[in-house]
Structures are given as C-alpha cells and as structure tokens.
C-alpha cells in the first residue's frame, strides 16, 4: 500500500471540495479502489470517505409525476438493494442483480455509486442502469444513463463531482442473466433486458471495453418479444473483448443466448 491521508467527509459539499484537489480520491465501499491501490494501479495522496453521509443512503419508491421510480442513494450497499422489499416488488431483476454481485463481503461493503463511478467494464450495475434507462443524480446535475458511460473506466463525471442517487423507472418486465467468471464473479457476459415505457432496452456488460446497448436485440424484441427472436440475432465479435476466459466470438455467441434466457425468465 502507498501512503495517503484519510478523512471522513461531514457533508456532500465538503466531500466535493476535497475531491477536487489533485491526487485526491473519493472512497465509497472501497471494493475496487483499495484493490487498485494494492496493485499499484492507483496512488492517491488523499482518500475522502463518504460512508458517514446518511443522505447518500436509502431506498424509496417515487410514484409522483412521471410514473413509478425506485430511487436508491449512492452509498446504499448491494446487500441492502438485494434485501429491499421495495426493490423486490417494483423491480425484481434489480434486486436479483444486486444479490449476485461478488460475494457476501463485496455485497455488504460495495455501493451502487461506487460501482457506477468506477465503471468497470465487467461490473453488473451499469447493465441495470443502462438497461432500465435510469437517471444518475450528482451534487451538480442529472445525467441520463445513455450519456453517463463513456468507455473503459470512464464516465461523464467531472473532477470532484459526486453521485448522490440513481432513479430507476419501474419497467413492465425486466430480467438479468449473468455468465460469471467463477473466480472473480465478474460478468464474462451479463445481459439486462427490459420492457420500459420508452421501449425495449438490452444492455450488455463484460463483453467489451464498457457497457453497451445491443440495438440488434432491441429491434428484434420490439418486433416480437420471444426467446426465439433473440436466438435469430447474430452479434458481431468486432469491438468485443477477447482474453484467456473467452474469445470475442465466444462472447458474441453468449449475448443472444443470455438475452433469450432473460426474456424467458420475465415472460
């Protein structure tokens, strides 16, 4: 481990001010950042802990104005989302996804906001956010899911900008299917399928340099909502990842299969 200063933020405004300093990093659950520091991939001079900010925690269902939404605070843990009766009732696929992230330690320490801000290319939460067309709220603005994820570990967040909550619209149907890498439990390929008020959305994680929408599958499912419709779609392996766990062609073949399973699970 490298040497750094550590402090707990007393307010969101204070955290934002400190995080804007050069070589400062925010820490939420620390499940990604601490590992990166140990591996020498990150060397912050200061860590600002968000865990004491109660305003960033909690789950509520908002049914005012623009349809039902599940609003989850950025510092809410994966375990809390998985165990939430509100989430289980409103968006069962989201509770299912949260309950299958990592292991118990990761689920009890890792947070929604930390996962999104880190934007690991194989993380699970980005698929739910993009698949449901969620809105990310920060201490400065709101960002649509389609505009938030920019690439490998890259998001639309500006220096010092902090995620405060995420608003998930309640879909008519949704399901999550994950083909996990057994050692890390990250998604070798993960597919989130949803019928939303704005149409069918299919988000894929683990298969490329970042989460993305599978527009070919969205078109097929918009025409006919069936498992057979997904299996008729061919995904190009170009731009997909290839490593010792699976080639780009293997990942391309998995995507429609997992999408089909998702459709079958939520029919």
Concise structural overview:
The protein contains twelve helices and 14 strands. It is of the alpha+beta class and 267 residues long.
Structure overview:
This protein starts with a strand and ends with a helix. With 267 residues, the protein is an alpha+beta fold. It has helices at residues 12-19, 33-38, 78-83, 85-90, 92-99, 104-109, 112-118, 125-132, 145-148, 215-223, 227-231, 248-266, and strands at residues 5-8, 24-27, 46-49, 59-62, 69-73, 135-138, 142-144, 149-151, 154-155, 163-169, 173-180, 187-196, 199-205, 212-213. The protein is globular, with a radius of gyration of 18 Å. The protein contains 12 helices and 14 strands. The mean pLDDT is 94. It has a 5-stranded antiparallel sheet. It has a 4-stranded antiparallel sheet with strand order 11-12-13-14, sandwiched between helices. A 3-stranded parallel sheet has the order 1-3-2, covered by helices on one side.
Key attributes of the depicted protein:
about 270 residues, alpha+beta, five-stranded antiparallel sheet, four-stranded antiparallel sheet, 12 helices, 14 strands, about 35% helix
What are the SSEs and their pairings?
Blueprint: E1 5-8, H1 12-19, E2 24-27, H2 33-38, E3 46-49, E4 59-62, E5 69-73, H3 78-83, H4 85-90, H5 92-99, H6 104-109, H7 112-118, H8 125-132, E6 135-138, E7 142-144, H9 145-148, E8 149-151, E9 154-155, E10 163-169, E11 173-180, E12 187-196, E13 199-205, E14 212-213, H10 215-223, H11 227-231, H12 248-266
Parallel strand pairs: 1-3, 2-3
Antiparallel strand pairs: 4-5, 5-10, 6-7, 6-10, 8-9, 11-12, 12-13, 13-14
């Amino acid at each position: 481990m490298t040497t750094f200063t550590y402090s707990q933020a007393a307010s969101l405004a204070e955290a934002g001010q400190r995080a804007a300093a050069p070589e400062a990093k925010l820490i939420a659950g620390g499940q990604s950042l601490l590992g990166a520091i140990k591996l020498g991939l990150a060397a912050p001079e200061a860590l600002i802990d968000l865990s004491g900010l109660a305003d960033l925690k909690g789950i509520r269902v908002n049914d005012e104005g623009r349809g039902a939404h599940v609003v989850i605070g950025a510092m809410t843990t994966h375990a809390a989302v998985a165990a939430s009766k509100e989430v289980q009732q409103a968006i069962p696929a989201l509770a299912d996804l949260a309950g299958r992230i990592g292991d118990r330690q990761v689920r009890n320490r890792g947070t929604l906001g930390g996962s999104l801000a880190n934007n690991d290319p194989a993380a699970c939460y980005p698929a739910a956010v993009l698949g449901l067309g969620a809105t990310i709220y920060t201490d400065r603005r709101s960002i649509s899911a389609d505009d938030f994820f920019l690439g490998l570990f890259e998001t639309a967040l500006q220096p010092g900008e902090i995620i405060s909550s995420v608003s998930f619209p309640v879909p008519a149907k949704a399901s999550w299917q994950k083909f996990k890498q057994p050692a890390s439990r990250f998604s070798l390929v993960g597919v989130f399928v949803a019928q939303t008020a704005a149409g069918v959305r299919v988000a894929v994680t683990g298969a490329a340099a970042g989460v993305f929408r599978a527009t070919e599958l969205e078109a097929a499912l918009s025409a006919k909502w069936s498992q057979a419709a997904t299996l008729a779609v061919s995904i190009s392996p170009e731009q997909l990842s290839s490593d010792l766990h699976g080639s780009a062609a293997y990942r391309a073949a998995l995507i429609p299969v997992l999408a089909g399973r998702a459709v079958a699970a939520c029919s």
